[in-house]
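pinned: reference chain
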Amino acid sequence: MPNIKIFAGNSHPELAQRIAQRLGTEPSKVVLKKFANQETCVEIGESVRGEDVYILQSGCGEVNDHLMELLIMIHACKIASAERVTAVIPCYPYARQDKKDKSRAPISAKLVANMLSVAGADHIITMDLHASQIQGFFDIPVDNLYAEPAVLKWIKENIQNWRDCTIVSPDAGGAKRVVSIADRLNVNFALIHKERAIANEVERMTLVGDVTNRTAIIVDDMADTCGTVVKAAEKLREAGAKCVYAVMTHGVFSGPALNRLMESCIEAIVVSNTIPQHEKIARCPKIQVIDISSILGEAIRRTHNGESISYLLKNIPL
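pinned: its structure tokens
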């Protein structure tokens, strides 16, 4: 494919390789290292003058280092006369700090948006933003892709009695996502409402909906410490669910997450490969991975050729 360069940061080189393979190319040469004083050094290894550049970096692992790497790579390509620089960020960093929920709290997701714009990004491609309003933090185009088509495909192929399942949101914030999936599968949905009577008291969970003798599938955008999803699974089993699956777009799995999952009643937790999962799968066999490289690869191809990406919001590319 002419006039296109795909650069990968250190956060997820395997995903960049898969995307490049789909586009019939190889990831472009870049050297990423640190000086003795821990400053990040970026050396772009080939000409990008007049080229359409895509830089893939996910907000995972050492988030701050990877974010700085991304900003420096964008800046390096921009001042090397790249025609357009697109940041491909499968998991957007600081996405949960998207509002001022208490006094003097920062809106860090907005700060990251400003940093990306100032560094020289012309376009952002991301996936399942924690809050879709984050798109409004930018003054440049943002394409927020969805893992939903890949999730639907996994449910139909891997859950035998999926027509008798109930899609469950573990909190009120994910209701819209759950309703969309339930509508497309033509099944029921349920909602778990969390309550804190007083501060620091263990939260009470109330299930709204029926899961008796049904397969429950918990759907959310992110699995971090997995405290909420494990409690939600216990609540669903108490309410009579036959078995419980969890489907999340971004599998962060920090802190005690893997131990909690292994001890939980969840049959399997399914995540996409927006974040590398090899090490976590070795420690927790319940984790299964959906490959979303085809969606990101097709989005890059369509963006490069000036085509619409609306098709990808509801369908998996062939």
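why pinned: The first helix runs from residue 13 to 22. Residues 40 and 69 are 7 Å apart (CA to CA).
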